[in-house]
Amino acid sequence: TEKVNYVQRQIYNRVQYFVFDSDVGHFVGFAPAGEMKAERSNNDSAALDFYRGEVDRLCRHNY
Fold first, then answer.
1. Which terminus of the chain has a lower count of CB atoms within 10 Å, N or C?
2. What's the total number of domains in the chain?
3. pTM of the model
4. Alpha carbon distance 24, 20 (integer Å)
């Protein structure tokens, strides 16, 4: 099987705030506001489960 990766990036005004990468399995913040958002999202188990499942729902069936 192919290695499939899901990445979601939050960018506003050319500044990357945070990223979810299915290989990492959690959000990573870059700007101060993004670090707070990533920390909040990482503490929300429902959000993490949702984004971890996106690789199967959106990506894997195409390969």
1. N
2. 1
3. 0.79
4. 8
